[in-house]
Amino acid sequence: MERDAIDFGTEKVSTLFKKLFFPTLLGMLGMSAMTAIDGIFIGHSVGSDGIAAVNIICPPLMLLTGLGLMTGTGCSVVASIHLSRGKTKAARLNVTQAFLFATAAAAVPVALLLAFTDEAARLLGSSEHLLPLVRDYIVWNVPSWVFMVWEAVALFVIRLDGAPKVAMASSLTAAALNVVLDWLFMFPLGWGIMGAAFATSIATTSGCLIAIVYILRHAKTLRLAPLKASRTSIRLTARNIGYQCRIGSSALLGEATLAVLILMGNFVFMRYLGDDGVGAFGIACYYTPFIFMVGNAIAQSAQPIISYNFGLGASARVRQAERTALVTAAVCGLVVVAAFTGMPGWLVGLFVSLDNGAARIAVDGFPYFAAGFVFFIFNLTAIGYFQSVERIRTALTFAVMRGFVLLVPSFLVVPGLLGTHGIWLAMPVAECLTALSVAAFYAIKRRSGTR
Question: Nearest CA to 187 among 199, 203, 175, 171?
Fold first, then answer.
């Protein structure tokens, strides 16, 4: 596994960003494609009920993904700063502590979901009609979530180690394997939603193994380090993990925003439009991770550049990387809005026949839903910048604002004002208000000269 030559401190910022962004974007879109491909096969094999069932289990999946992103972001920022100051051993210890924490934190919810499958499904909004499908998906997919969390952390470490192409290979291998296994399990073998869940589990585990093998055997700098079992060592480990979680907590809140979006949407669509409404929203939710991953790819590509130069005190390079990331966010946001408003029928038709009741609801709602994507990507990029320069409180404030303070009330209020179109507009309203708040914050800081 070849390591790319990357010098975060002296190489031109735009060149660095390109080196990191394109492999990171392709890898992350590959991860999202794995989920979307599931949906396409499920839609054509099981129907809109299958899509609705998978959407029911998405909120805890998003939270576990957020756990991996939080841990990976936190350890990457801390390790970047240590490396910029020549403290390689400290960087390795932080990476090792991150993996230890991620393993313990992921195992608990996985065990609870497997132990209380039906209760969890009902709590997440499943109807009795959808319950058997939700149960099958939990049983055959949830055990792989520990590997998913490991891979999420590992990809941050691999990119910081200077091997973004290895990170991309890990993600794309999992996506390609998922396509083959989805087809095999769902059509020739006829395993239905169980086949989709099992295919995703195998693909996730395989992608994780590629990443872990690189860290264990091929990493040049960020190898794992042995941890001591003394009381002092345990106390320092707990302190370091706590600091990493504080830095990365807004990444967890980013995924929590998706979880809240899906959970609230499921309940509100079920109330207004029943199972077909949840199926329509489920189709939209298969695309939402793509948008999230675009924003995440921008933030994560800029993060090692910003953090490393922040550690060096190179403020001009930090500002240049920030500007590059924000411009990229604006361009990407406009592209995805154009796609979703210009061809909703084609996008929905990938999942289900357009004469399906859920499909008609989705085609009508997609342009309203897409109105928020520019703000969505901008907010993720801005929050990623605040994380990278250790402005933890600022990052947390905007993450909480978009995920809870504004999103939940939007789901409760906007549909009452605008009917079913208001359900689709709840996310755009919350993201737009957050983006305006971020822009006001930037303006105030620029005027005061404290940015």
Answer: 199
Phi-psi region of 217 (alpha: psi -120 to 50; beta: other; left: phi over 0): alpha
Torsion 110-116-122-127 (CA) sign: positive
How much is the pTM? 0.71
DSSP 183: H
Give pLDDT tens digits for 267-323: 888 888 888 888 888 888 888 878 888 888 898 888 888 888 888 888 888 888 888
Q: What pLDDT digit, counting tens, does each position of 375-407 carry?
A: 999 999 998 888 788 787 888 889 888 878 898
Write out pLDDT tens, residues 174-211. Answer: 888 988 999 999 989 989 889 989 999 999 999 999 99
Looking at residue 449, its pLDDT comes to 62
Assess contact for 431 and 402: CB atoms under 8 A.
Answer: yes
Burial class (CB in 10 A: 0-12, 13-18, 19+), 220: exposed
Q: Which long-range contacts (CB under 8 A, 24 or more apart) does 437-440 make?
A: 437/398, 437/401, 438/378, 438/379, 438/382, 438/398
Q: Which residue has the tokens 């492999």?
A: 23
Which distant-in-sequence residues (6+ apart) come within 8 Å of 224 by Cβ?
92, 95, 96, 99, 215, 216
Q: Are 434 and 396 in contact (CB under 8 A)?
A: no
Q: What residue type is assigned to position 1 of the chain?
A: M
Stretch among 122-131, 273-282, 386-395, 441-450 having the lowest mean pLDDT: 441-450
Q: In the structure encoding, which two tokens stand for residue 195, read together?
A: 């086949």
Residue 451 scores a pLDDT above 80: no
Q: Which residues contact 313 (CB under 8 A, 6 or more apart)?
A: none
